[in-house]
């Protein structure tokens, strides 16, 4: 179960340069570096809002994460205590980068009922988003394999768990 507060609501077509401007990409290879510049030019208050809440949820319109395939965009979001992103759609490359790194992405047909400050509970197994603030529920579809991968912290977490299992058996 993922619980959190909606701390950012964006419209459609938020691109990876909005998330992490290109000028910061070559400054470090340390993924923690990128959280300091998340939405630096697009929404400079994003980081401060994320510091106020231990589990943040980002809501957006269609095509969240479009643009270049920079994996640093996922780091910039996730490392600011974002538990999941709920949007109408995502480009495949952003979805795959998020799946690899354990940033849970949920697709719903309409995000207009989700607002700043709403307290949400996400049940990956049931495919539901419960808005505790408004008493409403949204449904989402996700493959069983993707659900399991997100629950294990992404592809990287899933591989790590598998390697630990192999080592324990040795």
From TrEMBL:
<feature type="domain" description="Aconitase A/isopropylmalate dehydratase small subunit swivel">
    <location>
        <begin position="44"/>
        <end position="109"/>
    </location>
</feature>
<protein>
    <submittedName>
        <fullName>3-isopropylmalate dehydratase, small subunit</fullName>
    </submittedName>
</protein>
<dbReference type="InterPro" id="IPR000573">
    <property type="entry name" value="AconitaseA/IPMdHydase_ssu_swvl"/>
</dbReference>
<dbReference type="Pfam" id="PF00694">
    <property type="entry name" value="Aconitase_C"/>
</dbReference>
<dbReference type="InterPro" id="IPR011827">
    <property type="entry name" value="LeuD_type2/HacB/DmdB"/>
</dbReference>
<dbReference type="InterPro" id="IPR050075">
    <property type="entry name" value="LeuD"/>
</dbReference>
<comment type="similarity">
    <text>Belongs to the LeuD family. LeuD type 2 subfamily.</text>
</comment>
<dbReference type="InterPro" id="IPR033940">
    <property type="entry name" value="IPMI_Swivel"/>
</dbReference>
<dbReference type="InterPro" id="IPR015928">
    <property type="entry name" value="Aconitase/3IPM_dehydase_swvl"/>
</dbReference>
<keyword id="KW-0456">Lyase</keyword>
<dbReference type="GO" id="GO:0016836">
    <property type="term" value="F:hydro-lyase activity"/>
</dbReference>
């Amino acid at each position: 179960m993922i619980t959190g507060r909606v701390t950012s609501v964006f419209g459609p077509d938020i691109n990876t340069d909005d998330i992490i401007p290109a000028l910061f990409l070559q400054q470090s290879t340390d993924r923690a570096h990128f959280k300091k510049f998340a939405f630096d030019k697009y929404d400079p208050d994003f980081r401060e809002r994320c510091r106020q809440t231990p589990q943040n949820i980002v809501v957006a319109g269609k095509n969240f994460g479009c643009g270049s395939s920079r994996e640093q965009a996922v780091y910039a979001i996730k490392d600011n205590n974002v538990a999941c992103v709920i949007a109408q759609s995502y480009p495949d490359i952003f979805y795959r980068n998020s799946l690899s790194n354990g940033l849970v992405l949920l697709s719903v047909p309409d995000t207009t009922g989700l607002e700043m400050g709403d307290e949400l509970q996400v049940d990956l197994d049931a495919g539901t988003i419960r808005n505790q603030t408004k008493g409403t529920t949204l449904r989402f579809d996700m493959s069983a394999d993707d659900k399991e991968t997100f629950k294990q912290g992404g592809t990287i977490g899933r591989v790590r768990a598998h390697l630990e299992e192999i080592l324990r058996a040795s």
